[in-house]
Amino acid sequence: MASGKTATQRLKNVISKDRELLSSGSIRVLKKELGNIVSKFLDIDKRKIQITIEEADQKNYNLSANFQKKSKAEDEME
Amino acid sequence: MGEAIVITSGKGGVGKTTITANLGISLSQLGFSVVMVDADIGLRNLDLVMGIERKVKYHILDVSKGLCTLEDALVKDTRSKTPVCLLPASQSHFKEDIQKDDFSDLIQSLKERFQYVLIDSPAGIEYGFRLSMKDANQGIVVVNPEVSSIRDADRVISILEQKKIKPIYLIINRVNTELLKKKEIVSPEEIQEILDIPLLGVIPEDYFVVISANQGKPFAYQTQSKLGELFLHIAKQLSSEELFMIEDSIKAESLWNKVKKSFTLKK
């Protein structure tokens, strides 16, 4: 493969990461901490958290999180 | 009120100064009054590329400190019919030596007197760059077909967008047509797709760019040459807000052979 194609592909990958508001590491920590807090109030599966963060406008961020309920089977195991 | 346009790139050495000089001249060939501001304080070069370094008496910091008037510091290039002026940078100071407000005042008074104020930004995204973009209405981002340059351009574009500078145009500089043919560089189409801003021009790599800088004779003065024609075309688009078609210059191989011939003839 000519190196121009490789360069294009690598650039697309790296730039889409550059444009993200938070690094993948920060997202992982945020999920963990959110999971710890929310699990004090709701029965959730801490391993199954999805979050999205967007810049809504000049002044606001939109942060949305999706938590799954802990399954019955897991309840019984504990 | 004139338009202030910042010419920037993030990465250094991609051709900002050469493009500022020649675009300024081409705009003046179209009849616009133009002033160029060398905002690369401490690393003055626009005067040298223009070939008017011997006429520099004062610089931007002399003006901001009140040691001379703005008029005193403007260097006029007499080779042009319509005025092309340069406000030189200081070679002995540092970026931080000029206050933000003083710089803004200067740009403001230049906008009142000229139709185009081209601000040649320093490389990087620090103070000097932020100063250069502060009072710009429009931006031109210069990029080379290299991964580091393209990534840096993306970063710079996002900063300009945050500052609501619009439009932000793209100029792809130093396209090696040999490598392009062999697909060993990111193509202009792909660069534009990645960066996603309107394209103002694609400039093939050519040794005459180096020669014209060596001689201090900007190629834009040779309006009959292909390189001069290309810049005139870019200047027309900039002033009419029309967009560049990649096919215009990148059918380039044949065009570029013509360019080389025309320069050989002129020498």
Which properties best describe this structure?
heterodimer; A: 78 residues; alpha+beta; two-stranded antiparallel ribbon; 3 helices; 47% helix; 27% strand; B: 267 residues; alpha/beta; Rossmann fold; eight-stranded mixed β-sheet; 8 strands; globular
Structural class of chain A: alpha+beta
- The sequence of SSEs of chain A as H and E is HHEEH
What is the domain total for the residues of chain B?
1
- State the total count of DSSP E strands of chain A: 2
Count of individual helical segments of chain B: 13
Kindly identify the CATH topology of chain B. Answer: Rossmann fold
Q: Low-confidence runs of chain A (pLDDT<50, min 5 residues)?
A: none
Average pLDDT reading of chain A: 89
Number of strands of chain B: 8
Binned strand content of chain B: 15-25%
CA-based gyration radius of chain B: 17 Å
Give the neighbour order of strands across the main sheet of chain B.
3-4-2-5-1-6-7-8
Mean of pLDDT of chain B:
91
What is the subunit arrangement here? heterodimer
Query: Rg of chain A to the nearest angstrom?
Result: 18 Å
Overall 3D shape of chain B = globular
Distance between the termini of chain B: 40 Å
Helix content of chain B: 40-55%
Secondary structure: helix percent of chain A: 40-55%
Write a short abstract of this structure:
The complex is a heterodimer of chains A (78) and B (267). Chain A has 78 residues and is an alpha+beta fold.
Walk me through this protein's architecture.
The complex is a heterodimer of chains A (78) and B (267). Chain A has 78 residues and is α+β, with helices and mostly antiparallel strands. The radius of gyration of chain A is 18 Å and the shape is elongated. Chain A contains 3 helices and 2 strands. The termini of chain A are far apart. Chain A has one domain. In chain A, a hairpin with a 5-residue loop joins strand 1 and strand 2. Chain A has a two-stranded antiparallel sheet. With 267 residues, chain B is an alpha/beta fold. Chain B has one domain: 3-Layer(aba) Sandwich (Rossmann fold), CATH 3.40.50. Chain B contains 13 helices and 8 strands. Chain B has an 8-stranded mixed beta sheet, with helices on both faces. Chain B is globular and about 55 Å long. The C terminus of chain B is likely disordered. Classes of the chains: A alpha+beta (78), B alpha/beta (267). At the A-B interface, helix 1 of A face helix 7 of B.
